[in-house]
Design brief:
CATH topology: Rossmann fold
Shape: globular
Radius of gyration: 15 Å
Helix content: 25-40%
Order of helices and strands: EEHHEHEEEEHEE
CATH class: Alpha Beta
Number of helices: 4
Largest sheet: 7 strands, mixed
């Protein structure tokens, strides 16, 4: 299946000069969405994953069904102030400034094996902050997976110490 054919380019979104990679055509294609989750499940079913971690919002779309198929826990990473219990936080750089992500302090136990998943790898800032959260809690990142990787932004360089895979590269 050619997954690239199910990704829509949206020019000048969210701002002029950006070509947004829209995954919603893939998500509404039942066979393609199932294929993606099945591919990811096949890749990680025997890797000892105990927890799948995903960032809001599009990461949740992939992370929750993957955790279900693997039979493991799902942990959401959210923007500041969105989680109801005690959290740990990590900052990451944006084009103009910084932002923060949070995870519940009791979400991951020391030495638990964690797979992090998101829809897209661009510059790697969000994923680096998520890795920091997992490792603050003592989790072991055993893999990082993406639906799409924008290779020209070199985000993989920030992740060179980890096992990284992406299903689609641009």
């Amino acid at each position: 299946m050619k997954l690239e054919e199910r990704i829509r380019d949206v020019p000048d979104f969210p701002k002029k000069g950006i070509i947004f990679k829209d995954i919603t055509p893939l998500l509404k294609d039942t066979a393609a969405f199932k294929y993606v989750i099945d591919l990811l499940t096949e890749r990680y079913h025997d890797k000892g994953v105990e927890v799948v971690v995903a960032m809001e919002a599009r990461g949740f779309i992939l992370g929750a069904p993957l955790a279900y198929k693997l039979g493991v826990a799902f942990v959401p990473v959210r923007k500041v102030g969105k989680l109801p219990a005690e959290t740990v936080s990590a900052q990451y750089s944006l084009e103009y400034g910084v932002d923060s992500l949070e995870m519940h302090k009791d979400a991951i136990l020391p030495s638990q094996k964690v797979l992090i998943i998101d829809d897209l790898l661009a510059t790697g800032g969000t994923i680096a902050a998520t890795i920091e959260l997992v490792e603050k809690l003592g989790g072991e990142v055993i893999g990082i997976a993406f639906l799409i990787e924008l290779t020209f932004l070199n985000g993989r360089q920030k992740l060179k110490d980890y096992q990284v895979m992406s299903l689609i590269q641009y």
